[in-house]
Design goal:
With 139 residues, the protein is of the alpha/beta class. The protein is 35% helix and 23% strand.
């Protein structure tokens, strides 16, 4: 299986000048807990709900006055969409990062989280277990 099969596409890109409160509000209103961050046209990092909680709220800082460019995760690691999921998982493990930017010909097209890999593996394991179970009917 390759990264393209399980990556998330269409992840919003916010400016480094976006306030943490606005980023958190966006996350709350959507199904994502991480957003890409850009200063110009390149991806400069990732901001997660955890970053906002740990680096703004827990410090008693004002989310309405804290720019996400100040707290985003960087440097960011990346993989190509055609790489194997196993290679992506190993990169995350070796670099101790929970997500990777996914590139197509060097341009960002999505993101993959460790949780995406785990969910996919759980589905694969459940499916394989079901196929070995008595009473499984193949369609």
């Amino acid at each position: 299986m390759i990264v393209k099969d399980i990556m998330r596409m269409g992840l919003p890109v916010l400016s480094t000048d976006t306030m943490a409160r606005d980023a958190a509000a966006y996350m709350k209103g959507s199904t994502v807990d991480a957003l890409l961050v850009s200063k110009d046209s390149s991806i400069d990092g990732v901001i997660t709900a955890y970053d906002i909680a740990a680096h703004v709220v827990a410090n008693g800082d004002d989310p309405a006055a804290t720019r996400i460019g100040e707290i985003m995760e960087m440097p960011q690691y990346a993989c190509e969409e055609g790489q194997s999921v196993e290679d992506a998982a190993n990169l995350m493990k070796n670099q101790k990062v929970p997500e990777l930017i996914v590139l197509r010909n060097g341009e960002p097209v999505g993101i993959i989280f460790a949780s995406d890999i785990v969910k996919n593996q759980n589905i694969k394991i459940i499916d394989e277990t079901a196929r070995r179970s008595p009473g499984f009917v193949s369609r």
